[in-house]
Amino acid sequence: MKLSTFCAAAVVAAATAGTAQAQVISISTTAAGSFTNSIGSAIGKVIVEDLKMKAVVAPGQSHGHEQVNDGNSDLSLVTASDLQFFVTGTGDYEGRGARKNIRIVARMVPLIGAAFVQKNSPIKSLTDIKGHRIGWGFHVQKSVFRLVQAQLANAGLGEKDVKPVLVQNIIGAANDFAAGKTDVFWFAVGSGKVKQVSAKVGGLRILPIDGSPAAVARMSDVYPTSYAMMMKPSPAAEGLTKPSPLMAYDMVLFSNTKMSEDRIYKIVKALSRNKKSLASTFRPLARFDPKGMAKPYAHLTYHPGAVKFYKEQGTWPPKG
Question: Which residue, 9, 98, 112, 154, is most buried by CB atoms nearer than 10 A?
């Protein structure tokens, strides 16, 4: 099933299964083609096919924090660090107040965020970005802006060292790169959008991070919970030509206090037994670990439905 046709297919599948009165599970994600949209679509497919529920994936310009917190959406996905900032009203959400309705559901997969350049670009490393044009600002996706700043910090660079080109979100930054307006763009490795851009510009190459302890510390100071992960070339890693250290950070599924314990329990249980389906829908989910869905994160509280399943699974309390 193509991700772009998932939403309509999800409702049809549920209806033909005789579940017209079933709860519709809404999943808010970032724009179509983004990493979270692809994961959300894979999760929705499992909800439809395994649980015989209806599921609707709603792509938007930003992450679904507000919608989920207010109870207008059931599920969304974001990095653990961004969710920490959101629930505490700190970092990129300074002054907005704490959000008490958010409940984490599961760690889904390590997200690998990387800088991409054209395959024949003279830029060979993050330090080579100095003096070049890059997307900047990310008004509606501050977590992406923090990612860019963290990788610049990894290389010992800052705003004064680059030529900023203002963008609103990660899709806009990728489009600017494809149009020749910038020299580097950042995106999640394995995303459909990366493949689209690669086809348009004649191939891409990933810039590895500096994996030394000091450089990784500079990176994690800007982007808490991030870490270095060695990755090998694979069909899921467009632009990676050799084993390289890349920046990783956990993508988590979250809900709210309005979602019932039973529904969350069933969703988490279904995800845990459907790794094959998840990975076949979106290849980077091959990194999904059913035994690693519970991981401790400061300031984040797990939904009681998720806790119930993790206790049954023997992975509660989480370690890490």
Answer: 154
